[in-house]
């Protein structure tokens, strides 16, 4: 059994998949961020839209999210730092031309009604 896409050393079905399938909610901003990376890796665009804060959702088109997630080969997630409401990370991937890329982001999250949401990020 291989490790989860998010880099945790447990299988996907025991790590991020329960969040993506809506079985349970991520209990921290970092767990939500990790599950969102796994959602990009697996093309789970609905989850990405649903875990984006409602105030920012109009800027995130499901079709574009799905196209971008599927155009890239997701290699590795590296969480550099996290606080209660922020996560700084590097996401490693190959773009559609198989060129190595690194997406560096400092993301902000918000807890509302016991659910974490992605608000925005600085690249």
TrEMBL record:
Domain YchJ-like middle NTF2-like: 28-121
Pfam family, one: YchJ_M-like
InterPro entries (UniProt xref): NTF2-like_dom_sf (IPR032710), YchJ-like_M (IPR048469)
Domain of life where this protein originates: Bacteria
First and last residue of the signal peptide: none
Name of the featured protein: SEC-C motif-containing protein
Organism listed in the record: Flavobacterium aquaticum
């Amino acid at each position: 059994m291989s490790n989860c896409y998010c880099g945790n050393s447990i299988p996907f079905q025991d790590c991020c998949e329960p969040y993506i399938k809506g079985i349970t909610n991520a209990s921290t901003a970092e767990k939500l961020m990790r599950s969102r990376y796994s959602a990009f890796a697996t093309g789970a665009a609905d989850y990405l839209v649903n875990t984006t804060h409602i105030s920012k959702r109009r800027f995130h088109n499901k079709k574009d999210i799905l196209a971008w997630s599927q155009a890239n080969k997701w290699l590795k997630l590296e969480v550099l730092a996290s606080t209660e409401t922020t996560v700084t990370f590097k996401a490693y991937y190959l773009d559609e031309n198989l060129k190595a890329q690194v997406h560096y982001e400092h993301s902000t999250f918000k807890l509302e009604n016991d659910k974490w949401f992605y608000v925005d990020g600085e690249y």
